[in-house]
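Supplementary Methods. Inverse-folding protocol.

Structures were first reduced to a discrete structure-token string of length 375. This string, shown here, constituted the complete conditioning input.
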């Protein structure tokens, strides 16, 4: 087994660190418009987009916070350095988010003990004008102040983002109410160092509405978070949930992988994407491409199976991709792959036309920020 540490490296250079976080700030800023186009195509409903957009904004906030934290990397001796997964994802490693969550718990304490932003700026001006020195220590203090202010605001993408329910409606079946919910949650998967967003449609036939049922809802949240691993197929997750909760019926489950991010400056890519980025020779701000993959598992119906000596329970019957020999292997009904990239990278991709990208949806970002979809 390869040593993951060999794929991880610290950004020790100040300029490179700032470029990296500027790049990700721009990338995550485009994803909301990409999600809007996907909604317009009918790939997602408004309830689903609401959840996805919330996690994308949280991801933007997380990168902004980390950008403040590492703003003085390589210049100030006490400034730590961000560790990236340069092979698998192009994202920071999971340990960065775990440390950020720990810092978040102590953010208010740090803010109480630190001078305010305006006071720090005033001290910096006095040191520059009066002492004719670069106020490196004060710059570091200011960067950490801004970091903890971002943490105190909350709304960050954490290693675990617990499930939340959205009401979809209810039907009456055989005289009993059958409520429908959309469960939305997200994780930062440490196996691949990538954000993953989950959407599960559930039919609830319990006596009490799921979010208000304190005997089921905490157990549902714990179960889903424990099963949110990239190495588990959607079919495994859905069947496990279906078997553990007799009155909850998962009719659809989706997993969205945001990433990997590819860049000639920060990642070690191979294959067609390497050729595309190499041929594009894009300037720093446009030197990137971001993969977006959606796995989708749907139930075709349900069947009654025996439970105990005299009882029976409803179990979902899931369909695997009938048009792909890999349906059973992937454990999904369908897998949709997309890639988001600046217009210049798209032009290089279109010119090379590598076979592996012909069935991938392309979202090209213009210099104005407008996003266009190509096939």
């Amino acid at each position: 087994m390869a040593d993951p540490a060999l794929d991880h490296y610290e950004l020790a250079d100040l300029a490179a660190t700032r470029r990296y976080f500027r790049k990700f700030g721009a990338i995550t800023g485009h994803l909301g418009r990409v999600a809007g186009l996907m909604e317009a195509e009918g790939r997602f409903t408004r309830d689903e987009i609401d959840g996805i957009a919330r996690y994308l904004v949280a991801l933007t906030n997380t990168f902004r916070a980390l950008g403040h934290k590492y703003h003085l990397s390589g210049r100030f001796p006490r400034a730590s350095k961000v560790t990236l997964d340069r092979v698998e994802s192009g994202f920071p490693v999971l340990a960065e988010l775990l440390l950020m969550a720990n810092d978040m718990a102590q953010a208010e304490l740090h803010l109480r003990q630190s001078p305010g932003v305006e006071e720090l700026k005033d001290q910096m001006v006095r040191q520059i004008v009066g002492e004719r020195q670069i106020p490196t220590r004060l710059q570091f203090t200011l960067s950490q102040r801004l970091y903890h202010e971002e943490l105190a605001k909350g709304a960050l993408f954490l290693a675990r983002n617990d499930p939340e329910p959205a009401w979809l409606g209810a039907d009456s079946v055989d005289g009993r109410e059958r409520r429908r919910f959309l469960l939305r949650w997200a994780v930062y998967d440490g196996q691949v160092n990538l954000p993953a967003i989950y959407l599960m449609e559930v039919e609830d036939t319990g006596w009490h509405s799921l979010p208000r049922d304190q005997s089921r809802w905490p157990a549902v949240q714990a179960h889903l978070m424990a099963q949110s691993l990239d190495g588990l197929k959607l079919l495994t997750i859905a069947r496990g949930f279906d078997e553990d909760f007799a009155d909850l019926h998962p009719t659809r489950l989706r997993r969205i992988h945001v990433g990997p991010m590819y860049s000639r400056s920060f990642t070690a890519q191979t294959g067609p994407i390497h050729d595309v980025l190499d041929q594009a020779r894009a300037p720093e701000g446009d030197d990137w491409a971001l993969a977006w993959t959606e796995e989708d598992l749907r139930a075709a119906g349900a069947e009654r199976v025996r439970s105990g000596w005299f009882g029976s329970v409803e179990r979902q019957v899931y369909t695997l991709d009938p048009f792909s020999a890999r349906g059973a292997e992937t454990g999904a009904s369908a897998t949709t792959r997309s890639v988001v990239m600046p217009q210049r990278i798209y032009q290089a991709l279109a010119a090379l036309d590598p076979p592996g990208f012909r069935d991938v949806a392309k979202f090209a970002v213009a210099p104005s920020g407008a996003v266009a979809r190509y096939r």
